[in-house]
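Got a spare moment? Tell me how you read both lines of this record:
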Amino acid sequence: MNDLAQIFQLAEHDSRVVAIGTEGSRNDPSVITDAWSDLDVTVFVREALGDDAWSHWYAR
């Protein structure tokens, strides 16, 4: 399972998550990717995420 799929799986089971947004050059399928291409993920939440399953992601 890739990183994005893991984030979506965590969000699906967490009632604090309101929405997920993606930004970055990899968000546009018409852009040719290279070593500098990225996909930024924003997780919108109702309340702050604590030291739980999400800590793996925001610690990176």
User: Anything to note?
Assistant: Strands lie at 17-23, 40-45. The radius of gyration is 13 Å. Helices lie at 3-12, 55-58. The mean pLDDT is 82.
